[in-house]
Amino acid sequence: MTAVMEKADAQPKTGEIPSFDVTIKVRRFNPEGDAAGESYWDEFHITAYGTDRVLDALHKIKWEHDGSLTFRRSCAHGVCGSDAMRINGRNRLACKTLLKDVNPGKPILVEPIKGLPVVKDLVVDMEPFFASYREIMPFLITTGNEPTKERIQSAEQRERFDDTTKCILCAACTSSCPVFWTDGQYFGPAAIVNAHRFIFDSRDEGAQQRLEILNDKEGVWRCRTTFNCTEACPRGIEVTKAIQEVKRAMITRAF
């Protein structure tokens, strides 16, 4: 009786998700040690499930294979934007990318996002990115005394900039831009998107200041409309459209 029960327990359960072997190749960089300053590919073989995310695979590598592997992560639900990286040549969030959706049966290549200095492995220095973000004054600018009641805004007025409020500052759009790769002074799509969010806000009074900042030679006019930024955005923001609207506002308000 016991033997029969043990055999029955060994059978796969109905609806059970099958596991599979996957190869993860990670672009490594260590500022210290024998190979200081030189990046290289490191290969790991793990067992995973199709519903696992790339972030789950990186956790498995770090916890079971190599504790020195370094990457950023926080909420793990596509809200914080901290785990943006290049996965098979495309900027994605590791926490939103399923292994079964990334070249099934082939090695998965994981690299740091481009255009920003690499600190270690998949971690980049985000300061240049946030410096551009701060420069466009990403806050509500108003004049007069502190209001005694809510600043009223219609649904139509809110809809005007709704899309660009979704930005989570992951840098996926900016680090997918070829202009940003070659010109570190370019504000980049994310900064322009966040400027758009306030330029078209009916409650804000700092639109002209932001437009003057973005009219700089490293501002919106450096955009070459390649749509890389729109394709890379994990939140589905129409980044290229927002940049074009800022350009149009700059021209119409000037004349």
Automatic annotation (TrEMBL):
Q: Does Ribonucleoprotein appear among the keywords?
A: no
- InterPro entries on file: 2Fe-2S_ferredoxin-like_sf, 4Fe4S_Fe-S-bd, 4Fe4S_Fe_S_CS, Beta-grasp_dom_sf, Helical_ferredxn, SDH/FRD_Iron-Sulfur, Succ_DH/fum_Rdtase_Fe-S, Succ_DH/fum_Rdtase_N
**Which EC numbers does the record give?**
1.3.5.1
Q: Which cofactor does it need?
A: [2Fe-2S] cluster; [4Fe-4S] cluster; [3Fe-4S] cluster
Q: Which residues form the 4Fe-4S ferredoxin-type domain?
A: 157-179
Keyword annotations of the record: 2Fe-2S, 3Fe-4S, 4Fe-4S, Iron, Iron-sulfur, Metal-binding, Oxidoreductase, Tricarboxylic acid cycle
Its top-level enzyme class, in one word, is oxidoreductase
What Pfam families does this protein's entry cite?
Answer: Fer2_3 (PF13085), Fer4_8 (PF13183)
Look up keyword 4Fe-4S and say if it applies: yes
The family note in this entry says: Belongs to the succinate dehydrogenase/fumarate reductase iron-sulfur protein family.
- PANTHER family per the UniProt record, alphabetical: SUCCINATE DEHYDROGENASE [UBIQUINONE] IRON-SULFUR SUBUNIT, MITOCHONDRIAL, SUCCINATE DEHYDROGENASE IRON-SULFUR PROTEIN
Spell out the NCBIfam families in the cross-references.
dhsB, PRK05950.1
Name of this protein: succinate dehydrogenase
Species of provenance: Myceligenerans salitolerans
Q: What is the organism lineage in this UniProt record?
A: Bacteria, Bacillati, Actinomycetota, Actinomycetes, Micrococcales
